[in-house]
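User: Can you help me understand a structure? I only have the sequence.
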Amino acid sequence: MASAVPSNANEGCVGPSSSQAGKASACAGCPNQQKCASGRGAEADPSALVVKDKLSAVKHTILVLSGKGGVGKSTVASQVAWGLAETDVEVGILDIDICGPSMPRMMGVEDEEVHKSGSGWSPVMAADNLAVMSVGFMLGNKTDAVIWRGPRKTGLIKQFLTDVDWGNLDYLIIDAPPGTSDEHISIAKLLKEVSIDGAVIVTTPQEVALLDVRKEISFCRKTKIPILGVVENMSGFECPKCGNTTNIFPPVSGGAVEMCKQMNVPYLGHIPVDSKLLEACEKGESFLARGSPGGPAVRPLQTFIGTITEKVTGVGITFGSPGDSKQGG
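Assistant: Let's start by predicting it. Here is the structure, written out as tokens:
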């Protein structure tokens, strides 16, 4: 389609059919600038086409984003992957937080290594139906710092998408670093030809976090990434003794609920602070499967995962007691 924004275009691309094509300020430095200015349009990015072919057996792709670090984005991403895997579907989780990979620990596979085969890299299996890939598996030492510039990060993300033998997946969860950095630009361009189901944006209730969520929403809209919605993490702490709830991060501006109304994006629910959830992540386990029926985060997390699957597939997940789940209406 001639008016489609090319996958390797700069952020803010006006489109090859625009009268400003090749002339707008966003066109500066774009590899397609001369072609667009001449009226010939842009060619599809070969890398994005390779990614499209490689991920053709992946039914649903979900990005997990956050505007600020420390809001529990990787906690949410890991537990969504664990929760989906409990429904006996095939799940993969890709950690593209190159400088701060946490998925190996959160998925309980930090001592594993990836292996190269004839069909590409083999991801590490956290369960029979749950595959994990992260730069964390490639470090000589767990505490080694990854000090890479943008092009090298982009190259590795491209390899993750083109050289990993994911096989047939029902869901691929991509855990991105906070903010809108090189990794985000790379993943947006490389997945341009793939039908991304959307992004889940994680925040905490306080305004200092919500300010950056607004920027993340703007980034998604500029790069044409659909937004599934925003989930509010660490939304209050329920005392196990008295039952009273304390807002550790006061929602002085109305929290995620009010922000979603202002930004016209779906609100996906809240997940309160729960020590059992944090413990599950530390031990690399599934919070819902390990059993904590009275925990304050159990039902909110179940509802959140059910909401995502309903948005993506049209069919939600019905959870019973911890460890029990099934596809349902």
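Now, to help you interpret it: Residues 207-222 form the longest helix (16 residues). The first strand starts at residue 58 and ends at 66. Let me know which part you'd like to focus on.
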